[in-house]
Amino acid sequence: MSYFSQFDKLNYTFPDGTVKLFNNLSTRLNLLDKVKKEDTRFESYYIKDGDMPDTVSYKAYDRPDYHWCILLANNIFNIYKQWPKTNLQLEEYIIEKYTKQKNKNDSDVILSRTAALEFANFKGSPSNNYEDSDGVYSVIYRPKHFIDDQDNIYSFDSAFGESTDAFGRIITRPTLYPVSYYEYEFNENEKYRTISLPSRRMVEQMELELRKILKG
User: Fold this and answer.
1) pLDDT score, position 39
2) Do 143 and 127 belong to one domain?
3) Are 142 and 136 in contact (CB under 8 A)?
């Protein structure tokens, strides 16, 4: 997508086929701020699996080339990091991220795809103290962390054993729930699912303002 050909530049194709280079990130933000003063209407949109900025633009405005308006309105400047991955992309990302592990001897090992997914999906149970080891790579499986009912995060080490406060009194922990690495990555990915779509009038105004800036 041309919007991301360079971090601080935008090749925008106008309806007449004219292509102009729109650079300077601060100028783009000033453009959005100016238009927002005149029209602040936004609609929430949940990005479905496989949605891309141009397809969302087509659904919302009957044309795909307003994708840059959607990205700009949501402060998205890197689609690879700020747009949700598809389920397949997420799985491949997790396999690549967690395939390299340390074994019990602190040596680097490369897990197979299946083993990497098993490692990432592991949550454990009270019966195995939330810990296990595979029989091939000697890698210890543990959850990424634990959470309580308030979504407070506890590391593996802080989730077990007695804990005391500054006065030496024993702290009673709340009920904790294990979170796997896969679940963590899934939840991080989901944070990008909901975006704000500017109104049709707003994107048309953004295009007009962009024309004025490019004509300088």
Assistant:
1) 54
2) yes
3) no
